[in-house]
Amino acid sequence: MYDAVLWDIDGTLIDTTALITGAMGETFRHFAGREVPKCELCSLIGMPLETQLVYLGDPASFGTSVQEMSAFFVEDYERRHDQERVIDVAVEALIELKRQGVKTAIVTSKNDVELANTLPRLGISVFCDVIVGSDQSAPFFKPHPRPVTLALEYLEAEAQKAIFIGDTVYDIRCGRAAGVQTAAVLWGAGTEVSLRFEEPDLIFSHAEEILPSLGQASWINPISLGETLRT
């Protein structure tokens, strides 16, 4: 069994890909008058909101600011937040692993404002020992290792017995750089091709695979288990 399991939120515990790309696309249309292809918007998921919003250039060139665009995005997102779909089995795995004594952390690129809106709807805060968002890890964000190393410091956990679960290449690169094992989920924003290219220790095609895999001493030989999950 792992001593600590670190979880991403968007695309891992909740399906928000269409919601995020929709709100981001509307934000760019409103302020920049530009249509951005969905595939490009998907590639931004996993970055902090402020980083996503400068994708088309300095907001000042559109006569606005990152703060104004951020407020617009959050308002648009919340207006249709009923599109969020909780990945119930993944959330249940988080809760059960915590009940088994595993240290649990959320490591996300969401900022405090976004977390204040989202976490109450997920109902997992009481089961999380640590929550590290972009405001906590600033100025270092995924794929920089700091978000994960900060969570490990708070948990007082060893990297060698920890795993980070996420749905984007930023999650996998962040976890690897921090020295923890990594698990990619295939139901989020990242494409299967891009995630496999990163060679995570585990790949979960279905949320039902998480608990049976992490509730045992899989850290001893993660590659063999990961290969089993990839078939």
Task: Produce the secondary structure layout.
Blueprint: E1 4-7, E2 14-15, H1 17-32, H2 38-44, H3 49-52, H4 66-79, E3 85-86, H5 88-99, E4 103-107, H6 112-122, E5 130-132, H7 134-137, H8 146-155, E6 162-166, H9 169-178, E7 181-185, H10 192-197, E8 202-204, H11 210-214, H12 222-230
Parallel strand pairs: 1-4, 1-6, 4-5, 6-7, 7-8
Antiparallel strand pairs: 2-3
Structure write-up:
This protein has helices at residues 17-32, 38-44, 49-52, 66-79, 88-99, 112-122, 134-137, 146-155, 169-178, 192-197, 210-214, 222-230; strands spanning 4-7, 14-15, 85-86, 103-107, 130-132, 162-166, 181-185, 202-204. With 231 residues, the protein is an alpha/beta fold. The chain has 2 domains: 4-15 and 85-230, 3-Layer(aba) Sandwich (Rossmann fold); 17-83, Orthogonal Bundle (DNA polymerase, domain 1). The strands form 2 sheets. It has a 6-stranded parallel β-sheet, with helices on both faces. Strands 2-3 form a two-stranded antiparallel sheet. Helix 9 links the parallel strand 6 (162-166) and strand 7. The model is unreliable at 217-231 (pLDDT under 50). Helix 1 packs across helix 4 (66-79). It is built from 12 helices and 8 strands.
